[in-house]
Amino acid sequence: MAAVDETGTNATTTGGPAPLDLRNIAQAPKALLHDHLDGGLRPSTVVELAADCGYDGLPAADADSLGRWFRDAADSGSLELYLETFAHTVAVMQTAEGLQRVARECAEDLAADGVVYAEVRYAPEQHLEKGLTLDEVVQHTLEGFRQGESAARAAGKQIRVGCLLTAMRHAARSREIAELAVRYRDQGVVGFDIAGKEAGFPPSRHLDAFEYMRANNAHFTIHAGEAFGLPSIHEAIAFCGTDRLGHGVRIVDDIHPGDDGTPQLGRLAAFVRDKRIPLELCPSSNVQTGAVASIAEHPFDVLARLRFRVTVNTDNRLMSDTSMSREMKALVDAFGYGWSDLERFTINALKSSFLPFDERLALIDDVVKPGYAVLLG
């Protein structure tokens, strides 16, 4: 299948491209915008941290069984049930040592998978049970990311991790978390987010936090259009002014076949596309939570061909038993994508990141394009 770039132009490859297998995809430079810190722990780390902190609520005692349990429990078809699995990971992330270790290993694991830039999010308000303050939670997590970046460099890998601070949409601390994000934005925090159950907890409940971010010229994204559909997306854009849509997969509900069979965009879908509002799509997770029925039926390809700003993401690597390479391979298998497509999705992500423009450009020109040139042959 010919690749289609963001302007709709057919892109062709020359020479001998590398086979599109997992090993080669892992070597490709990748950018990740939607990854939850508490959804990406190594099963072995969960077991060890649980022993260290005295948490005895794990549903399995060994790492292999626990990893299978997370995957099977998250594969529920319900966002609410999917979110219940996080009780176990959050429980072991309540100490300085635990937070640093999880953040360090996150950076190491992403770098080993070829991710050169990642924005990793978590909710500081969920890590206070052992007496840490919000500031201490952020400080220890940022230190862990820096340790992971250093370890990756020592292993010959390049990665930069930016942190997104998340407020829980069912709670009432979003303004406080927004202030925290601004306070640490020169130390590795690149933005703000809200997450949690969409139904009954619209983003407009947190307008004060979003207004604070805008007043301080700070970036934010909003989980919207995963479980609740178009109303959630509309509020996130029209009332809250989000920079990106966390998931946003249900924007496809505003796209319908016209009389001639070609897709016709409704006003909201057209606005999202025309304003180049990035979609943080998470294919495997979207299947697990019931947002879509299967990877083959995921609207990713429809949205990509209609020239939405689509990006590929992991969401929760532990719960989905996934990685960026596996997410890309799943899309390759489902839709016949080539290296040019994967390069485009990666550049989309970097264009949409919360890095300064010159730093985004440097990663695209100096890392991503040369990396894919080798794979394209």
UniProtKB/TrEMBL annotation:
It catalyses: 2'-deoxyadenosine + H2O + H(+) = 2'-deoxyinosine + NH4(+); adenosine + H2O + H(+) = inosine + NH4(+). It is an enzyme of class 3 (hydrolase). Binds 1 zinc ion per subunit. It holds the Pfam family A_deaminase. SUPFAM superfamilies: Metallo-dependent hydrolases. One of its GO terms (cellular component) is cytosol. GO terms for molecular function: adenosine deaminase activity; zinc ion binding. The record marks 247 as: Important for catalytic activity. Keywords: Hydrolase, Metal-binding, Nucleotide metabolism, Zinc. The active site is at residue 226. Residues 7-19 have a biased composition (Low complexity). One of its GO terms (biological process) is adenosine catabolic process. Its EC number is 3.5.4.4. PANTHER family: ADENOSINE DEAMINASE. This is Adenosine deaminase. It comes from Rhodococcoides kroppenstedtii. The gene is add.
